[in-house]
Amino acid sequence: MNNKIDKLDQKILQTMLDGDGVGAKMTELATELSESRSTINLRVSKLQEKGIISGYKPDIGWEKLGYELLAYVGTVCPDEFMGDLVDTLKGEDTVYEMWEIMTGTFDLLMKCRFKDYSEISKLHDLIMSVSGTREVDIWLLGPCRKCG
User: Fold this and answer.
1) What is the DSSP string of the chain?
2) In this structure, are 19 and 82 located in the same domain?
3) Strands of 69-76's sheet in order across
4) Most distant CA atoms of the chain, gap in Å
5) CATH code assigned at 15
């Protein structure tokens, strides 16, 4: 399958990543790029067919929902205990994404959102309660410099 894209496709993707023209806003995307709506619709459809665009996600105002704290959590957990750790964390409301790590110090990295510091402590204790888990490191994030 040929997944090469040209300059217009690149502009479409970048504009969409910037938050403009997503979903039902194809007219706005066409206007922003000075292209016809039919051209943009066709291009976006082709990008979807190629699997380059696989969905649209809302930009959620987490702070308005009370989630003031964004963190990444790294854990050291040997392979034989990883399944238990992942199963334990799947139901946790504060854990949004998990990745098994292929290189580096940690074995599992999680993206988490917390309403307060007590939730951080609760998650830390839950992780450490899983047999085999040896270490938990938590990075609280401040403002995103690239985002403004």
Assistant:
1) ------HHHHHHHHHHHTTSS-TT-HHHHHHHHT--HHHHHHHHHHHHHTTSS--------GGGGT--EEEEEEEE--HHHHHHHHHHHHT-TTEEEEEE-SSSS-SEEEEEEESSHHHHHHHHHHHHHSTT--EEEEEEE---TTT-
2) no
3) 95-100, 108-114, 69-76, 135-141
4) 58
5) 1.10.10
In a domain, 136, yes or no: yes
Rounded to an integer, what distance in angstroms lies between the CA atom of residue 29 and that of residue 16? Answer: 8
Q: Which two tokens stand for residue 40?
A: 């943009």
State how many domains the chain has.
2
In a domain, 66, yes or no: yes
pTM over cut 0.90: no
Could you tell me the residue range of the domain that residue 85 belongs to?
A: 62-141
Q: What is the pLDDT of residues 84-99, one digit of tens each?
A: 999 999 989 999 999 9
| Residues 76, 97 share a domain | yes
Pairing of strands 95-100, 135-141: unpaired
